[in-house]
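Example for tutorial group B:
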């Protein structure tokens, strides 16, 4: 198993996440002590949280980054200062760096926060019309600027096109494996006949994760036949999604 010191550090991140939840409920929302303490205790003892902590998973630190982001957004809503908004956007990107599933929520909070401040906050409704427009403009510029800088920096560091995730093709294989057909490989330098080499059934949606991580899955097979499997994976998964955007094949399988 992992060294004890790593487990201790993971536990510290988890404790800080629970404290962040307590601080948000107690001081940002003004709830009573027990009303704020009980959810923090439930988070600390929640089985999935404990599992991620003990298994040294990225979700532990990602959750801390996300909880901190929420706290900073609360501070922005209380003050209306764009400096806090900038820090909150950076916090959302930090959470996304650990787990991309935080991305939609981080963007949603960043888009919603200026509206909440200007129209429903304590100080926002008193801001004149032109200053409201200026505030929204700068907030939007901060949101777009931070995310644009991040995806370009990430792309340069990983030597892939700008994005939030370098191996998007690999990950999409796990999502759309049942939709991939031999004709989707046309022009990629890889023959669609490799699908016959994949030992795991492509049509079984329960096998999607295994097609990414297992040696007998589609991704491992693709790696054997291409010097740039990521580019091929992006092409074939994009074509598969365009051919069947609502996943009709998988829907029929699941209902049968």
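The residue assignment follows.
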């Amino acid at each position: 198993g992992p060294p004890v010191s790593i487990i201790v550090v993971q536990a510290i991140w988890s404790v800080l996440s629970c404290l962040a939840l307590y601080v948000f409920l107690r001081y940002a929302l003004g709830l009573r002590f027990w009303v704020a303490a009980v959810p923090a205790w439930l988070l600390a003892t929640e089985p999935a949280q404990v599992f991620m902590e003990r298994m040294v998973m990225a979700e532990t630190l990602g959750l801390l980054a996300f909880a901190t982001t929420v706290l900073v957004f609360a501070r922005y809503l209380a003050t209306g200062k764009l400096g806090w908004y900038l820090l909150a956007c950076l916090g959302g990107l930090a959470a996304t760096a650990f787990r991309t599933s935080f991305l939609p929520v981080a963007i949603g909070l960043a888009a919603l926060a200026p509206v909440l401040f200007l129209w429903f906050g304590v100080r926002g409704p008193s801001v004149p019309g032109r200053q409201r427009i200026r505030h929204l403009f700068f907030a939007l510029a901060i949101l777009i600027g931070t995310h644009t800088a991040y995806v370009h920096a990430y792309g340069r560091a990983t030597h892939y096109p700008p994005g939030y995730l370098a191996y998007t093709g690999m990950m999409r294989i796990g999502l759309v494996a049942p939709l991939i057909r031999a004709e989707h490989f046309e022009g990629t330098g890889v023959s669609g006949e490799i699908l016959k080499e994949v030992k795991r059934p492509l049509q079984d949606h329960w096998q999607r994760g295994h097609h990414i991580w297992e040696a007998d899955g589609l991704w491992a097979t693709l790696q054997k036949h291409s010097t740039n499997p990521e580019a091929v994976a992006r092409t074939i998964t994009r074509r598969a999604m365009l051919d069947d955007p609502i996943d009709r094949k998988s829907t029929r399988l699941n209902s049968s």
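The chain is about 70% helix and 0% strand. Compare this with the pattern of hydrophobic and polar residues in the output above.
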